[in-house]
Amino acid sequence: MKKSALHKRLSYRQAKFTVIVALLLGLIFSGIQIAIDISHSRESMDDKVQQVIYLVEESAVQAAYNIDKDLAERVVKGLINHAYIHFAQIRLDDNSVLSTSDTPTYDDSVMSQIMEKDRRSYAVPLVTVFEESPVGTLIVETDPEALSHDIFDRGVVILSTGFLRNVLLAVCLFFVFHTLISRPLTRLSDSLILLKKKHHADQQIPRLKGHTDDELGFLVDSFNELWNSRNQAEEALRSSEQFNRDVMNSIGDMLIICEADFCIYNANHNAFQTLGFSKEDLVGSNMRNLFSAAQLPKPLAALTSDANLVHEVSLEGQLKNLKGHLIPVEIKARRIELNGKTYILALSRDISLRKEQEARIHHLAYFDSLTSLPNRSHFLDRMHQVQSKSLQHNMYSALLFIDLDRFKNINDSLGHDVGDKLLIVVASRLKEMMREEDTVARLGGDEFVVVLPELAGQQESAALSAQRITSRILEVMAKPFHIDQHILHISASIGIRLFPDDDNDIKNIVKQADTALYRAKSNGKNTFHFYRPSMQLLADQHLAMERALHTALEHNEFYLHYQPQVDHNFSIIGTEALIRWQHPEQGFVPPDQFIGLAEETGLIIPIGCWVLQQACTQLAQWQEQKLCPHHFRMAVNISAKQFDHPQFLNMLSDVINRTGVDPNKLELELTESLLVKNMDATIIRMDAIRAMGIALSIDDFGTGYSSLKYLKQMPINQLKIDKSFVMDLLTDANDRAITETIIAMASHLQMDIIAEGVEDAAIMGLLVRLGCKHFQGYYFSRPVSAENCSQLLQVQKLPLGS
Fold first, then answer.
1. Tens digits of per-residue pLDDT, 224-268?
2. Are the CB atoms for 442 and 407 separated by under 8 Å?
3. What is the DSSP letter of 182?
4. What average pLDDT does this structure show over 351-360?
5. CA triplet 791, 794, 796: central angle to 5 degrees?
6. What are phi and psi of 180, to 5 degrees?
7. Cβ contacts of residue 2 below 8 Å, gap of 6+?
8. pLDDT grade, residue 655 (50/70/90)?
9. Under a CB-based contact definition with an 8 Å cutoff, are residues 297 and 304 in contact?
10. 3-class SS letters over 422-460
């Protein structure tokens, strides 16, 4: 606090006010006094003039009676010598002037003009004792100028003495005010400034000397009392704040105080330490920024949105620290009203350790402590879920019950440590080879189970899928295990149970899978067994076919048939090479029974290569015999695995070079599955094939998941309408609409279109009307041998007799 300027000080303003008031009062009273004096002067002037006239009246009578000019002259001159008489004259009774005298007037002041109205004229009759009638008249006129001078002089004296008196009075009052008021107030102000600078709680304003019992003394005492009360309140508030701060900081949890808009108002030390924020960074920010999605949980946000919700809310969430790591917390929040403002108290407890313990307890409750695989409880829960979904979706699932062969010998001979490590590696191998939706669990000892959910909608297909997976497990288990310095060889026996069926009790399903396991062990181990004999028979047949398929190429059991393709004029424009299998024991095996198995086992690669080699060899013979029309093409089916093989393009080029076939007469039929995976690589490979001159066709178009976006980018020559759409073309409006759409799309993309499965003239006629010009089906010819196809090529018209 700085001192005020002199002209702003209270003492200066008091003195200035006193002087002004004193001067104004002095002027007023002096003016009144002058006005009274003027009135008195007028009366005094009249009295004095009448006295003078009275004194000279007798002499004037004698002068007039005796007509004595000398005496009259002396009388009038004596009169005008008086200060107030301006004019004197003696007239005789005949109105003649005996003597006259006056004084000249030079003052033309304002005061003279004002006093001009006070000019008086006296006419005194001169009467003798001898005569009753006057002998003359004495005329006297007063002089207001003399009166004005007299009044002015006295007014100056009055004003001067009044001004001096008022100045002295103002000085006295200033001294009194300064001594009694201003100086004590200045000392009081200086004490306040000093008190503010030092701000000692025990310091007070000293009492003013001489003002102990007056108002200033009472003011000092009252201020000291207020100052003590204020210091006590400040100390209490400081103590309370420190206590609250200590209480807040002593809380082991994070305490965050927010305003109604969740802007952070304050927090305790544990909040700053746990979250990693400084007080400057955290206070003032919004609490929603501490949550992972930068959005408040609904229960927390409801504290301010619902006016009736004043109770405590509890929730679990995750707070984000300075480094962006998420901390699991349990939050208890409450809304409070303080001084008309709303605050949110959020007590957040770090439950990371509890979550870890819960996860640990959950892991111990549902997972095997050795292998970390699901345990029996988790496995049974999973079985209930899979069974419920399988029933809902009408799908078959499978349970594989696995037991390691000769594990007890390893445990007994090498010790439990080696046995435990072996179990860990076995669990790892099982997990690696299973799908994400499959469940691998350990029931105890060397017993494992695998749940295969929703394998197929048909029981036979599900059984075959379960068998393939089981065979892979047996292959993996047969590989050596490197445990420490030991190389261990074990095998496994597996029991398979498909579900759901008539008996859907989970315990019974597990028990029946266990029964199938021991049946497998009794059959020599290192094998599997289905619980139901019919499934086991199907598995045995499938396994036998897989073994026979491995030797079919070596024993020349495959051969090709050719089905002609015609145009709308019934002229042969090409053929499709179709593989056949003549099993030495089972006889003719339809392609749909072994092609899928060849795909699964990878045998489709050598089989596909053989088909391409044989088809190109036959095409080269027909070219040499000049049986191929000008636009003739032979179609050969290529599987997705064969197409994706790294050496497929090299193999294709080698076959063409070895057989000498014209690549322009070769057409590769690809499945739609190629159009839904690795589009860029597929298009590059197709471009390479087209660069050789080979045509490309999409087989069974409309049954897969073709991407029309990529179809227009692919170098496709032809689309083949699947026979499932063609067979019911005359009766099914949907099939007709789909067929018509495919034909229109192919025409728009400038692709050829061919329909397979044409079995009568009515279907062909409708296809022609829809815009299709190429056909294949039993109406023209069944698949025939190369010799019979050669004869058909010589005829060039199908069906025969058309």
1. 777 778 777 877 887 877 777 777 777 878 888 888 888 988 888
2. no
3. I
4. 83
5. 110
6. -90, -25
7. none
8. very high
9. no
10. HHHHHHHHHHHHCCCCCEEEEEECCEEEEEEEEEECCHH
Confidence at residue 802, expressed as pLDDT on a 0 to 100 scale = 58
Burial-class residue 63 by CB neighbours within 10 Å (0-12, 13-18, 19+).
buried
Band of the pLDDT at 1, cuts 50, 70, 90? Answer: very low
d(CA 764, CA 567): 10
**Global confidence as pTM:** 0.46
Residue 352 contacts residue 330 (beta carbons within 8 Å): no
- As given in the structure block, the two tokens for residue 778 are 């039993």
Q: At residue 354, does pLDDT exceed 90?
A: no
Say which residue, 609 or 796, is predicted with more confidence.
Answer: 609
Q: What are phi and psi of 29, to 5 degrees?
A: -70, -35
Among the listed residues 309, 291, 434, the one whose alpha carbon sits nearest the alpha carbon of residue 373? 434
Sheet containing strand 136-142, edge to edge, reads 97-102, 85-92, 136-142, 121-126
pLDDT above 70 (res 202): no
Give residues with Cβ within 8 angstroms of 213, minimum separation 6: none
Residue position matching structure tokens 């070219």: 623
Relative orientation angle of helices 215-250 and 183-198, to the nearest 10 degrees: 10
Sequence-distant (≥ 6) Cβ neighbours of residue 236 within 8 angstroms: none
**How far is it, in rounded angstroms, from Cα 283 to Cα 273?**
14
385: pLDDT strictly greater than 90: yes
- How far is Cα 471 from Cα 91, in angstroms, rounded to an integer? 178
- Signed CA dihedral, 588, 591, 592, 593: sign only: positive
* CA 738, chain centre distance (Å): 47
Q: Taking a C-beta distance cutoff of 8 angstroms, is the pair 26, 165 a contact?
A: yes
Backbone angles phi, psi at 711, to 5 degrees: -60, -40
Bridge-based pairing state of the strands 341-350 and 326-338? antiparallel
Q: How far is CA 782 from CA 538, 667, 793, 798, in A?
A: 31, 20, 14, 11
Q: CA 99, CA 71: separation in Å to the nearest integer?
A: 9
